[in-house]
Amino acid sequence: xxxxxxxxxxxxxxxxxxxxxxxxxxxxxxxxxxxxxxxxxxxxxxxxxxxxxxxxxxxxxxxxxxxxxxxxxxxxxxxxxxxxxxxxxxxxxxxxxxxxxxxxxx
Length: 106
Hints:
The protein has 106 residues and is mainly α.
């Protein structure tokens, strides 16, 4: 099959604007996940027997459990945001072809 002279392959992969917003969100989510890990580790250290990790914040066992739960929640939210922003950044590089032109996978 002969390719016509009017064919331009650059139209299939359009050049979009920079994804600075997604990069900033990914960086923020990495910081959030890191803070969650550190907070959870401080709560576990307080439960094990070293309550001076966060001072008076987790001096009691109940406060330490709350600190661990908040840290794990921050870790979960940070990883969720990071994966979502990564998916959106990768989706921007897909080809702009009609679905009916793609191969059928049975």
